[in-house]
């Protein structure tokens, strides 16, 4: 029997699975009891006792029409729960192309909400994603000079977010620059009004530090739709009288990890390349997934399982298709970008299924597309958010075939060089 529960306050739509856990992590840290679902629940009448709900979609790189459709479906479900504000979450590197999907989804959500103004702010200072004069920086580099310029699906060759977003929408895009942000929430609110008077419907926000997120959050109070990376979420819970707490139920009640440990890496980002290299240099076991072997029909799954079996339970083991940009380009030119990606995702997802059958209960997955494929293969429908491993990456837990599994979904760009080994230490210490 369902007990009477309070309506959730914030309803979030994330365009990939790693992004969803990234957002949920920040909401939990900032004082919101948060539940993450994988897609819109089949049982749409289910009641959820939480302050925030994050719907994880795999919509970042699918056809625009499908991305819009899935996002609107999530919106309708969240509205049925009575949420007060909608949050559309995309990557802190604004992963998109001139065709979408960020702009078209924003357009569709604004229309569905009968709203005419929102913000766009992928900044996440804790993960070294900042915005100045509308230009997105990754660390000390412009986005267009970072490893994102070679992303196999969404190459980002322009750091000017006003220009990038304007190419994806017919709505006028403007900027709230840092001179306004530094003056606080009232100045930001006034700038919103001024921009709307100029016909602006989407405003890029400058952000240089976490301290900027609090006044921004205050200025966003009551706005029907917020679009952002996970950083902006840090400043929103205060609008409902919630505050950061190390005693958050989602963290304090989180179970310690048990069982064998494995890593599945499909991301080809510079950060993940460095993480794979560090893991292998430490003498830890790794199995390379070759897309050309997959295309030939080789029994890569059987080979991977046979390799893994004698190693499980000793040390973490790694399965990786991660490669340098030049290698990725050769694969894409030979097999096609989409086909190559699908081959790798399917292979890693099938390996994940076999690993769980073999007793692996601690999984780290690197890459948004890979994470989506793995979560779907394991038939996970919701996740409990646990402790942070690195900025933007928490451990989560889920039930798979009746067993508790711990799983960390890592955006390709996140985490330090030793992330793979550090992750398990954080869960088990």
Structural overview:
With about 425 residues, the protein is α/β, with parallel strands linked by helices. It has two domains: about 10-245, Rossmann fold, CATH 3.40.50; about 255-429, Molybdenum Cofactor Biosythetic Enzyme, Chain A (3-Layer(aba) Sandwich). It is about 35% helix and about 20% strand. It has 15 helices and 18 strands. It has helices spanning about 15-30, 65-80, 100-110, 160-165, 180, 185-195, 215-220, 250, 270-280, 290-295, 300-310, 325-335, 335-355, 370-375, 420-429; strands at about 10-15, 35-40, 50-55, 85-90, 120, 130, 135-140, 140, 170-175, 200-205, 225-230, 260-265, 285-290, 315-320, 360-365, 380-390, 395-400, 405-410. The chain has a 15-stranded mixed beta sheet with strand order 9-10-5-11-4-1-3-2-16-17-18-15-12-14-13, sandwiched between helices. Strands 6-7-8 form a three-stranded antiparallel beta sheet, with no helix packed on it. β17 and β18 (about 405-410) form a beta hairpin. The longest helix is centred in the last third of the chain and has 21 residues, at about 335-355. It starts with 9 loop residues before the first strand and ends with a helix.
Major beta-sheet overview? 15 strands, mixed
Cα-atom radius of gyration? 21 Å
Counting structural domains, the number is 2
Structural class of the helices, strands and pairings?
A: alpha/beta
- Shape label: globular
CATH class of the largest domain: Alpha Beta
Helix content: 25-40%
Global mean pLDDT: 92
Number of strands: 18
Superfamily (CATH H level) name of the largest domain:
Putative sugar-binding, N-terminal domain
Low-confidence stretches: none
Name the assembly state. single chain
Strand content: 15-25%
CA-CA gap between termini: 38 Å
């Amino acid at each position: 029997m369902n007990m009477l529960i309070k309506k959730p306050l914030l309803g979030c739509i994330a365009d990939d699975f790693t992004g969803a856990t990234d957002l949920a992590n920040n909401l939990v840290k900032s004082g919101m009891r948060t539940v993450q679902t994988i897609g819109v629940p089949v049982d749409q009448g289910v009641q959820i006792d939480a302050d925030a709900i994050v719907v994880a979609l795999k919509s970042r790189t699918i056809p625009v029409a499908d991305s819009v459709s899935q996002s609107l479906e999530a919106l309708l479900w969240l509205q049925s729960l009575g949420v007060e504000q909608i949050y559309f979450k995309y990557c802190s590197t604004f992963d998109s192309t001139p065709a979408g999907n960020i702009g078209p989804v924003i357009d569709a959500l604004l229309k569905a909400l009968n709203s005419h103004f929102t913000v766009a702010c992928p900044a996440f200072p804790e993960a070294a994603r900042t915005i100045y004069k509308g230009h997105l920086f990754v660390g000390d580099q412009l986005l267009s000079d970072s490893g994102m310029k070679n992303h196999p699906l969404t190459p980002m060759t322009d750091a000017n977010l006003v220009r990038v977003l304007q190419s994806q929408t017919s709505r006028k895009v403007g900027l709230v620059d840092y001179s306004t942000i530094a003056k606080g929430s009232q100045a930001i609110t006034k700038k919103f009004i001024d921009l709307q008077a100029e016909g602006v419907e989407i405003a890029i926000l400058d952000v240089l530090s976490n301290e900027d997120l609090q006044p921004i959050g205050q200025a966003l109070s009551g706005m029907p739709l917020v679009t952002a990376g996970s950083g902006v979420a840090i400043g929103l819970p205060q609008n409902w009288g919630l505050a950061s707490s190390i005693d958050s139920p989602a963290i304090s009640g989180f179970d310690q990890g048990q069982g064998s440990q494995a890593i599945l890496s499909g991301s080809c980002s510079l950060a993940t390349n460095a993480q794979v290299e560090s893991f292998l240099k430490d003498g830890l076991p790794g199995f390379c997934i070759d897309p050309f072997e997959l295309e030939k029909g080789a029994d890569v799954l059987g080979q991977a399982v046979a390799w893994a079996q004698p190693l499980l339970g000793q040390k973490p083991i790694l399965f990786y298709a991660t490669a340098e940009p030049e290698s990725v380009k050769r694969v894409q030119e030979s097999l096609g970008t989409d086909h190559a990606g699908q081959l790798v995702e399917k292979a890693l997802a099938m390996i994940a299924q076999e690993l769980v059958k073999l007793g692996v209960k601690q999984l780290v997955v690197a890459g948004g597309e890979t994470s989506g494929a793995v979560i779907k293969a394991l038939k996970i429908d919701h996740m409990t958010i646990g402790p942070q491993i690195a900025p933007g990456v928490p451990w989560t837990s889920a039930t798979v075939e009746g067993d508790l599994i711990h799983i960390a979904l890592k955006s390709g760009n996140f985490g330090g060089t030793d992330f793979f080994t550090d992750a398990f230490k954080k869960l088990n210490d």
